[in-house]
Write a structure and sequence with these properties.
The longest helix has 15 residues. It is globular and about 45 Å long. Helix 5 links the parallel strand 4 and strand 5. The protein has one domain: Aminopeptidase (3-Layer(aba) Sandwich). The protein is built from six helices and five strands, in the order βαααββαβαβα. It starts with a strand and ends in a 14-residue tail after the last helix. Strands 1-2-3-4-5 form a five-stranded mixed sheet.
Length: 151
């Protein structure tokens, strides 16, 4: 399967929210009501207007099958390197367990190199053991403990 990657558009927003909500954890925190909650449009506009943020859509034959958000972060540490924070990775339920996630991350690693990224980082909820296993299989290491404070 040939995957294509493109910037997300406002027309993709409802589908992206639906994908974010399509699992046990997402269904508890996302709002899939129609019309779309205006907070998603506000977030979309904030993300897409920031030069260090990208919302990427993954397609097969012009059908959306995945998404991810990339945030490029300049750091003083590691000799002033750039990092790419990967968030909101989703594969449509009809395309899971087919190797697409691996293909996406292979593309992402090469793409990040073109942006002079030295470290690719992500977080994954501890309640997603399959995702944790997947990321470890790609070569990611659990080097830090993460903390979040919901405000």
């Amino acid at each position: 399967m040939e995957l294509k990657y493109r910037e997300a558009t406002e027309e993709d927003l409802q589908f992206m929210v639906d994908m974010l909500a399509d699992d046990e954890l997402g269904s508890q925190r996302e709002d899939v009501s129609i019309p779309l909650n205006p907070s998603y449009l506000c977030a979309f506009q904030n993300i897409t207007s920031d030069a260090n943020n990208e919302l990427r859509i993954v397609e097969i034959d012009n059908e959306i099958i995945g998404m991810l958000q990339l945030t490029f972060i300049p750091y003083l540490t590691h000799l002033g390197s750039w990092r790419c924070l990967v968030e909101g990775v989703r594969i449509h339920k009809n395309y899971r367990s087919q190797g697409i996630g691996t293909q996406i991350f292979e593309w992402l690693i090469e793409y990040a190199k073109t942006k002079n990224v030295d470290i690719l980082q992500l977080t994954s909820d501890k309640k997603r053991p399959n995702a944790l296993k997947f990321y470890l299989g790609l070569g990611f290491e659990m080097t830090h403990e993460g903390f979040k404070l919901k405000l």
